[in-house]
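Ticket #4471: structure output looks truncated?

Reporter: J.K.
Steps to reproduce: submitted the chain below (283 residues) through the standard prediction queue, then opened the result file.
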Amino acid sequence: MIAFLGMGLLGANFVRAMLSKGEQVNVWNRTESKAKALEQYGAKAFENIAEAVRDADTIHLTLKDDTTVDVVLAMASPALKPGVTIVDHTTTSVDGAIRRTAEWKERGFTYVHAPVFMGPPNALESTGFMLVSGDQQVIARMEPALAKMTGTVINFGEETGKAAGMKLIGNNFLVCFTAGVADTLSLAKALHIPASDVATLFESWNPANMMKARLQRIAGGDYSKPSWELDMARKDTGLFMEAAEKGGTKLAVIPAIAAEMDRWIAKGHGKDDWTVIGKDAVS
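Returned output as attached by the reporter:
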């Protein structure tokens, strides 16, 4: 028996996928109507969280943050079966994941933090990526069930909380990437170039292919053989900002990048590869 707590878009679709595979799932949500909506697919919805978890061998969580996880688990704890496994898919702090793992172990329960890179469609289709770390015996026991929920389970080893850290790193990249896309479209708008033409460019030229090499270049620490000098990259960055200002649009992240470039140029790195701006991140 599985209990699932938190019926947002991700949690609801996880439940639907479980039900389609023949699992029995109890569901609970603070807004009861969201849990009730899953009954049409075969879930059993509960208004009382204690009733939802009472018979569960495994409890899954998709909640908002550390505080919400702590509050919901505190509400559920009096009714938990001895030895139940708690699998938390919430994006939380590293410290929170470490603390909960230790606290619930002391109480005789297993807490596994398993954040995901999955949208609601992925949860419904059981595709995407799930991250785990910590006690390898626990992970080996849980991995077959977790693999059914997602396309790939990535095990980051024995360090408790590392999966939480990797999730934050991934989300940090996504935020930066999306902000970069927004600035790209703002510049296109300023230059009176439609977004459809930007899409055409990236259909042929895929800068994502550069990700691995760029990461290795920054992490390698040798910026002395430039493929693009920092001075030249800063010149182009100035052109971006000038065009945006002239066209009446606002760039959100490029001005901050320009300021960082100026800092490194002032330190004498203008003729180095422009990736030198990432030096402090790896040294």
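Triage note (M.O.): checked the attachment and the full token line is present. The first helix runs from residue 9 to 20.
Status: closed, working as intended.
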